[in-house]
Structure formats: structure tokens, C-alpha cells
Amino acid sequence: MSSAFTKSAARNIFYGGAVFFFLLLLGLTFDTMQTLPKRDNRANLTDSVERGKHIWETRNCIGCHTLLGEGAYFAPELGNVYTRRGPEFIKAWIKAQPTGAPGRRQMPNFNLSEEQLDDLVAFLKYASEINTAKWPPNIEG
Amino acid sequence: MNIAIALPTPQDRPGTLPGDLAMWFFIFAELLVFGVLFLAYAFARARNVELFDASQHNLDRLSGAINTALLITSSYFVVRAVDRIRHGASRACAAWLAAAMALGAAFLALKLVEFGGKFAAGITMSTNTFFMFYIGLGFFHFMHVVLGMVILGYVAVKAWQGGYSAADHTGVETGASYWHMVDLVWIVLFPLIYVMH
Amino acid sequence: MKYQSQAVAKPYFIAAIGLFVGQILFGLIMGLQYVVGDFLFPAIPFNVARMVHTNLLIVWLLFGFMGAAYYLIPEESERELYSPKLALAMFWIFLVAGALTIVGYLFVPYAKLAEMTGNDLLATMGREFLEQPLPTKIGIVIVALAMLFNLSMTVLKGRKTAINLVMLLGLWGLAIFFLFSFYNPANLVKDKFYWWWVVHLWVEGVWELIMGAMLAFVLVKVTGVDREVIEKWLYVIIAMALITGLVGMGHHYYWIGTPEYWQWWGSVFSALEPIPFFMMTLFAFNMVNRRRREHPNKAAVLWALGTGVMAFLGAGVWGFLHTLAPVNYYTHGSQITAAHGHMAFYGAYVMVVLTMISYTMPLLRGREANSPKAQVLEMWAFWLMTVSMVFITLFLTAAGILQIWLQRMGETPLGFMATQDQVALFYWMREYTGLVFFTGLMLYIGSFFVKGDKTQAS
Description:
Oligomer: heterotrimer
Distance between the termini of chain C: 19 Å
CATH architecture of the largest domain in chain A: Orthogonal Bundle
Structural class of chain C: mainly alpha
Largest interface: A-C, 73 and 77 residues
CATH class of the domain at 1-160 in chain C: Mainly Alpha
Shape of chain C: globular
Radius of gyration of chain C: 22 Å
Distance between the termini of chain A: 53 Å
Structural class of chain A: mainly alpha
Number of helices of chain A: 5
Strand order of the largest sheet of chain A: 1-2
Largest sheet of chain A: 2 strands, antiparallel
């Protein structure tokens, strides 16, 4: 092509384009932050939920499970486990680990106290009530 | 892809793109983004015609029409500016560019009034799919007008200082190409979102 | 090697390759745990193995980027590194911090590790890829800042080229966006939203600048094509990467509680994300075709072309496959994501680091290229690793499609574990292919020890 094609123009396109689209991203982020209160279930963000999230993190649950589809794909989705299994099942399940069934995937026992289990369940309940645009497609996650 | 405009002066190098090729990559990317967004709008509308028609009634078509006229006129001014620099008239080129920017500013002002009314009425991108496109695309285009004015402003200042000549004015063409793209997008956007139903 | 201080890249590259081996070993452990669930339990539970696998990947790629920067920046700036001693000190700090972190993962229960390392003061741990204890995170920031200071001073006093500026900008971006890893609000949606500002803006943002600069550097060297040509294309490609990739972040904001308009913005912009990768492929092939010299290091040329192709396939094609919101609704959080992740990381970042190592290592060891015998072995390694990664991706894709079909479609969906049992065959095939990959990696390391005849300059 005989048109001009200069490095300085290419550089300006790069810097200009990067700044421009970063500003667009910031604009959308600003709007997202304004809209989140309607979707993110923050009304139910209690101290117990907060402690539960801390337990979730410090046991590295995300290393096997997904939460709202993000994490590892080794074990079931837990964003909707509260609706799928209910609080009592969840607690009983965690306490019963590991199953020790030969050849089956094993979950460690984290020796959580009854109070910690309640906090974790509270966190999973809170997570299940976030408006996720109807994801997952069905209850199995 | 080619934006055909009846130029007062024939192009220096017939058959080639005016301005710098780098800018055409950018324009290509921009048109691709807008093109896909327009298709997405058509797709979304086809699935929910009633909602789109009902929401469309809330729009200020007069404001949109005036804005269309403003941008088309500004594009003409930019054409004049390119014509002037091809004759080596730097100051006249800068003046035409300044006039185009003034119209761009008027566009922005009108658009802000329009958006202000919608925001005051509590309408956001999350109101419904139609307003998502109306505000989202409108804001996205708004940003383009701002960027176009920044580019024209840079070119105008450089032209005023005599930075271009009849022989070498690729920069003016580069800026003009971008401005025409911004105009072109609006010419599609306005009927698509404000008028067609 | 034109400047003495470039030698500091060598330990970085050696560490990178060492950690790469560790990453693959843990990958093999995890792959086996997918089908033999209790393998190595409770010594190394899956979550620990995965943390080691992914963290080693990140750390060794960072070693690779840093080594590349310490080699490339002095050469582009046409002067010695501002402080080689600082670079070497940072190497040891980073290596020790990284090793301690991995040891901590393996031998201390994670909750205990969190407690020991001040996670109660500022909770940042336990989020995917950002599992590092607080001191490690702070260490990463310090190492990165020291490196940036060192490199920036070098560039400021030296020649400024598109390649060293883009490299520097990418590394600055890397350091800046990492700061979001210290923000961990209780609000899960906000936590996830800004978590992506590290993860997405790294791999689909600033890392692409680093990758582009490294690739451009090697292409300038091995093809002899005019720097002006390569540099302007570099700018256009990374411009496209950021134009599409910044708002393309929306493809992570479909189902995590963020507003639903992200489904539109994310789909539109991320659908265009393959464009820069495709341009990079064309770029690499074009420059090699227009070469003005026959560089004796054929292996480096092969890696450069390979990264062009594989980055496009892994990041571009496999990314596009599931980036549109209506498709992603079904594929989100399935083995499809894993398939994409493997090929994209390998094709874009692993291969570009190996390209850089392939080009620079012979020079760092005092010769223009390795002996033909060593290069043949390296090319064997290239093909074994690359082809097996293609098959790993295909098997994971097959597993993913079947998983989605059984678990997410239809009237009577199967549960998660019942589905996993159904797709076990593909996991086995992935594991066998992983062994081939490991063989390739061993050959790759072997190629560094093959002596052979001296290369004749052609």
C-alpha cells in the first residue's frame, strides 16, 4: 500500500486507543458500582457472612470448587449449593469428610466448629441470593 | 469500508486511503465494534419489538435530528479544511477545523441535555435492553465525539502554526478520516435507535 | 550478548525452567487425581496441588518476563543495566520467597499458613491464583518495583525504542494491576469484579504488551527485517489488543452478580479479541518470510512462529468458542474453561518465554546458536510439547462438551460427580498426553546439555 504508514501514527493510535478504551471501562465500572446494590444482596451481608467468607478463603475451597462458576472444576459448584442441598446437609457433609471411599475424590476435613459451620453456611446462603442472571442453567450447577 | 465523499479537490494519490494507515486500522476496529453493536441491537429488537417501540417513544427525536445536522455540517467543514490545506492555506484550514469543533461542542451540549433528562427520569442502562443500547451506544459515541474533537484540536493547532503544507498534510487527512467515521456512525445510529420502528 | 549486565538474565531463565518442571509435575498429579480421586490423599489434596500448579506457572512466567526484560532492555537501550547487582539481589529474593511459599503450601495447612502470615490483618488469601500469603504478595510488589526502577533508569538514560517502551509499559501495568490483589471486600460481587482487574487485565491486557515486545525483539534479531516495520506493526497489534481486551473484560461479568448489560459489552468486545492474536500470527510469519538473513538459531525461529500460531488458537479460537454470553451460559465454569486456559497460557505466554530463552540462552552461553544436534533436540521438544498441548486441549474440550450435555442440558440433568464419572475416559487420555508433554519438557532440558559440533555461520 502506498499510503503513509508511520511509526509515530501507530504509536499515537496505541496510546490514544488504550486511554480511550480504559476510560470506557472506567465509565462502565462506575455505572456497575451504582447498579450493584440492586443485585449483589448486600442487605444480607452480615457479620456471620463475613466470617463465613473468611473461612471459605482460608480453607482454599476455591482450589477444588467453583463459586458462581469461578474456581477449580474438580468439585461441585457451590454458588447454589444452599438451594440444592440446604443448610443441614451442607454441615453434615463437611463434617463427614473425607469419605475414604477407595479411588474416589476426597475432600479434607477442616475440623470446623459448629459456629464456623454456621458462618460458612450463612456465606453460602448469601452467595446463593446474588442475582446471577439466572445462572447456573439448572440446580446441578 | 470506504467513506466516499465528493471532495472539492481530487485526492492527491487516487486509489489510496487518505491519511495514515495506522488510523485506518483504528477506524476499522471502531467500525467493527459499532457494526457488531448495531447488529446486536437489531437482534435484541427483533426478539422484543414491543418493548423497543414503547421505549423509543420516550426519545427526543428533534434533539437527535438537530445533532445529525450538526455532525453532517461539521463533516463538511472538515472537508473544507482538507481542501484548504491542499492549497497550502494553513490558517483557513485551522479556521474550518475550529468551526467543525464548535459544531461538535454543540452536539455534545445537546446530547448532555438529552441524557440529563433521561437520568433525571431515573433511566439507566439497566432499565431495559432498549435503554441499555440507547445510553450505552449513545455514551460510547459521545466519547468518540470528544476524542474526535481532541484530534481535530491537535490538528488545528498544528495547522495554525504552519505545521502542514500543500505537499505534506497527511496529519490533516488522518484527523479528518477519524471525524468522518464519528459522523458516519451517528448517521447510522440516529435512524436505527431514534427513528426506525 | 552486547552488554555484560545482560548476563543477569541467565539465572532468571534457569529458575523459570526449573519451576516449569515443578508446575508440570503437579499438573500430572492433579490430572491423575481427576480419575484416581484418592491419589496422594491426604498428603497432597487436590486444592494444594492446584495452587502449586497455577502459582508455579505464574511465578515462572514472571521469572521469564523479568529475565527477558533484563536481557532486552539493555540491548535496546544500548547501555549497561542501571544496576546488575540490584537485579541479582531481586532474583534471589524472588526465588527464596517463591520457594518458601510453595513449601508453605505443601507442608502447612492453608488455614494455619494464613494465620501465620498475617492474613487476619489484611485478608487477601484464598482467592483463585491470588492464594499467596501476604508477605509473598508484598514481596512480589517490592521485586517488581525494584525491577521497574532498575529498568526505567536504564531506558531513561539510553535509547528509547518501541520495543523497550512497550516492554516497560507492560511491566508497569503488571505491577500496577497486581495492586488490586490487596483489595478483598466482604461483598462477594465486588471481590470478584476487582479480582478480574488483576487476572484479566494481566493475561488479556498488559501481558500482551510484554508478549508483543518480546516477540518483536526476537523477530528483529532473527529476521533482520527493518526495525521500523516491526515496531509499527507492534504498535498496531497491541493497540488492537487493548481496544478489544479492556472492555472485553465484560466476558467475565456475565454471571457474577454484575449488571446484565455486560453480556452485550463483553460479548461484542471479546468477540473481537482474536483479531490481535491473528495479526500476531500474520506478523510473525510475514516477518520470517521477509527475512534478510538466515539466522543460525533455527529453533528460536520455530518457537517464534509457534507462539504466533498457538496463541491465536488457544487465546483467540478457544477463547472465542465460549465468549458469547448465550454460549457461556452453558460453558461457564466447565472443562471448556480449563481447555481454553491450558492452550492459551501455553500458546501465548509459555511459548513466548521459551522463544526468548531459545534465542538468548546460546548468546548468554557465548555462542550465536546451539549446535545443530542440540537444536534438533530442542525442536523435537517443541513438537512434543506443542502437539500434546493441542491434544490436552481437545480432550478437555470433549470432556467439557459431554459434561455440559449431561449436567446442564436436558430434562433430567446428572449431578456433578455422576457426570465426572461419565467423562473419565477423556481425563485418562488427557493424563497420558500430559506424560508426553512431560517427555517433551525433559527433552527440552536435555537440549541444553547436548554439545555437538560448533555451528557454522551460514
